[in-house]
């Protein structure tokens, strides 16, 4: 692209567009020294500076909103930092907000931006808009119109302003968009010179960086730090990863390198996340080291590498050590899964977003925070609005079905509202059902089709249930990508991850053509039935959690694909779904062959939930679970007698029941009664683990513990509207 005139610091060029602060005097603070260094290193962006200066000066024709956009590393934040300094030097109070810090609602924005609502001299600066896809619309429709007329707003993000700014007659004349592109060769060379790189080293770096200011700065640091500046530098396809390896240099230890690798794949890195993923290391020291790196930012929720640096670090590890890359990803996933089980329902939604982040396909917009919408349980006052929403989006017949489920399962409903309003704008319903009921089947054809599918696939085992995401209704954007649909998705995933005894999960969509490929990606199979409600047919999709449990499912759906719809992903081998009688028989067979080394090699128990996915030695893992569960029987006197009988006959290897009875010193009839009790209790305890799953302790031994987060344990799941 043609060169723009090069703007240098006040010590390098006179006549600046924006008033420049004087050189910091002797005895200056460190912040002043840092600002002065940034001032000297800044080059270019003449046009953008001129527009921002005119906006800051005000006037009848000055823009009220300036929207700066461009790809990662192009210099948006640097330009904003420079502008903020000029605004403050001009005596204007500045309110700054980074969208990466925004949580699941707009409450934080209201608090942070409160001053801008009352002080007409304020400048409101919002950076990283791409991290809150809902934020731009919320600002435009709900927040900015409340500002005093003289407040100046500067927005920055990777994507251009959405079309609503241009088509709305009110906003069209008040918004100016500034697209930041690559720097021209002359400006790029000036940046390298300002960064301390001799002209002799410019050529190769300029050809590689392509005018990206972040890459130019990183490359200059690498080349400048070399013992001799190379005359030629021929980067390969993985050059950015190599560049970052040079920039980081020799890390203090392998532990520091592993911490860096974790930060590259985690959305935000905290000390406790490092402690969970690197349990044998000093997490506090590693976090402090990461915090001091030049390419790592401290944000309210942890540490956040610059986007280009993050991608380069991850790609570098993937390229040079794929096994280590997968190990980091697996440790991070397991740490977040443990966090997901430990947190309450509200916090679980954000954890789901962090969990899915490392697995997101490139450019996939589905990974986003839940947005501006508020979610809460159904109340009595919400019921009329919920039924109106159902009628508006799906017709009166659907509203009648919704009324049935409101009366039958009110705790299954979630209601969504915009911040600052109590009026419901959307609702969802996730039904947890353990048996078909005649009235349900008569009222709801969709649930009837779900139960018909369950019946054709073997039915439910004792302790199991099905979940049906029966409604996801947002009339404004019915079953289209939106903040509401994203929030429904994260709530659904969080609910599934914490449910116990879940056999089947069903999702319902009216537009099978659009949602069919999406459901296939999420490993949901088309049931084939098309139940009709009113004038519309609905498609039903299902996942069997007994075949592919939650952890392998996460791995499956988040594996990156070059062509999501065209490539058949390798699926985990389905686990058998054993009937209770077959399960008990397999347990008895395992006990009878306990002392033979190969006795468990062919047992169907190896592919049940008693063995964790990915166990390096499935037989040893199964033995550990059986032994630990048997040992737990000793908690009471009757269980202790059962344990003694089972242990004497099977674990200690008595040749006959009679000899086992003699070893224990009890009559044969008493022994047989104790043995039957012990086997029955063992089968019951193992069945609970099979139905509800295990939490496995990391290491060689696996401790069986029923999974936490029973769907009945959450307060708002149990709360019912007072009638």
TrEMBL record:
Disordered: region residues: 1-31, 698-723
Signal peptide: none
Extent of Basic and acidic residues compositional bias: 711-723
Domain of life: Bacteria
Domain spans labelled Orc1-like AAA ATPase: 42-126
Protein name: Orc1-like AAA ATPase domain-containing protein
Organism: Cellulomonas cellasea
Organismal lineage: Bacteria, Bacillati, Actinomycetota, Actinomycetes, Micrococcales
């Amino acid at each position: 692209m043609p060169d723009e005139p090069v703007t240098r610091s006040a010590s390098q060029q006179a006549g600046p567009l924006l008033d420049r602060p004087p050189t910091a005097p002797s005895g200056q603070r460190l912040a002043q020294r840092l600002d002065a260094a940034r001032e000297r290193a800044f080059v270019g962006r003449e046009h953008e500076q001129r527009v921002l200066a005119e906006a800051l000066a005000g006037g009848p024709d000055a823009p009220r909103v300036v929207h700066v956009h461009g790809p990662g590393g192009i210099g948006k934040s640097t330009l904003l930092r420079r502008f903020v300094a000029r605004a403050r030097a001009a005596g204007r109070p500045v309110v700054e907000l980074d969208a990466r810090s925004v949580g699941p609602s707009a409450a934080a924005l209201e608090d942070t931006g409160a001053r801008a609502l009352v002080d007409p001299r304020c400048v409101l600066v919002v950076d990283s808009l791409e991290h809150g896809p809902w934020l731009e619309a919320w600002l435009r429709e709900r927040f900015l119109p409340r500002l005093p007329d003289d407040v100046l707003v500067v927005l920055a993000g990777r994507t251009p302003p959405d079309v609503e700014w241009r088509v709305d007659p009110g906003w069209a004349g008040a918004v100016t968009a500034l697209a930041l592109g690559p720097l021209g060769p002359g400006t790029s060379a000036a940046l390298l010179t300002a960064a301390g790189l001799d002209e002799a080293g410019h050529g190769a770096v300029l050809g590689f960086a392509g005018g990206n200011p972040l890459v130019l700065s990183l490359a200059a640091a690498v080349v400048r730090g070399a013992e001799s500046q190379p005359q030629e530098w021929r980067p390969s396809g993985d050059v950015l990863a190599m560049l970052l390896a040079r920039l980081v240099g020799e890390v203090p230890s392998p532990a520091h390198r592993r911490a860096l690798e974790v930060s590259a794949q985690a959305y935000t890195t905290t000390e406790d996340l490092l402690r969970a993923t690197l349990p044998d290391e000093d997490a506090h020291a590693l976090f402090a080291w990461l915090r001091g790196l030049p390419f790592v930012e401290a944000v309210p929720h942890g540490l956040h590498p610059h986007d280009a640096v993050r991608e380069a670090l991850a790609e570098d590890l993937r390229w040079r050590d794929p096994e280590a890359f997968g190990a980091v990803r697996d440790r991070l996933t397991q740490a977040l899964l443990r966090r997901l089980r430990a947190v309450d329902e509200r916090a679980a939604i954000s954890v789901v977003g962090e969990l899915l982040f490392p697995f997101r396909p490139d450019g996939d917009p589905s990974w986003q925070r839940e947005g501006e919408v508020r979610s809460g349980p159904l109340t009595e006052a919400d019921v009329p609005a919920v039924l109106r929403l159902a009628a508006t989006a799906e017709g009166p017949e659907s509203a009648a079905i919704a009324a049935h489920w409101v009366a039958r399962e009110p705790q299954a409903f979630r209601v969504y509202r915009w911040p600052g309003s109590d009026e419901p704008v959307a609702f969802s319903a996730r039904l947890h059902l353990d048996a078909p009921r005649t009235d349900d089947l008569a009222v709801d054809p969709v649930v009837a089709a779900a139960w018909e599918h369950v019946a054709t696939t073997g039915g439910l085992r004792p302790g199991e249930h099905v979940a049906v995401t029966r409604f996801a209704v947002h009339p404004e954007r019915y079953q289209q990508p939106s903040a509401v649909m994203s929030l429904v998705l994260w709530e659904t995933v969080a609910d599934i991850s914490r449910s116990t005894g879940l056999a089947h999960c069903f999702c319902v969509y009216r537009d099978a053509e659009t949602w069919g490929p999406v459901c296939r990606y999420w490993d949901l199979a088309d049931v084939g039935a098309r139940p009709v409600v009113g004038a519309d047919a609905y498609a039903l999709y299902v996942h069997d959690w007994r075949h592919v449990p939650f952890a392998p499912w996460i791995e499956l759906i988040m594996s990156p694909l070059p062509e999501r719809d065209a490539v058949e992903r390798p699926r985990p081998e389905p686990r058998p779904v054993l009937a209770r009688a077959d399960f008990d028989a397999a347990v008895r067979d395992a006990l009878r062959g306990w002392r033979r080394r190969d006795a468990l090699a062919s047992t169907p128990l190896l592919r049940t939930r008693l063995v964790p996915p990915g166990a390096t030695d499935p037989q040893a893992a199964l033995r550990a679970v059986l032994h630990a569960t048997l040992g737990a029987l000793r908690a009471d006197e009757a269980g202790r007698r059962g344990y003694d009988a089972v242990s004497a006959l099977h674990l200690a290897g008595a040749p006959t029941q009679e000899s086992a009875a003699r070893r224990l010193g009890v009559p044969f009839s008493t022994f047989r009664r104790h043995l039957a009790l012990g086997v029955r209790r063992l089968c019951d305890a193992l069945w609970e683990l099979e139905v509800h799953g295990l939490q496995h302790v990391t290491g060689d031994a696996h401790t069986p513990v029923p999974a936490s987060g029973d769907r009945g344990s959450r307060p708002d799941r149990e709360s019912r509207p007072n009638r």
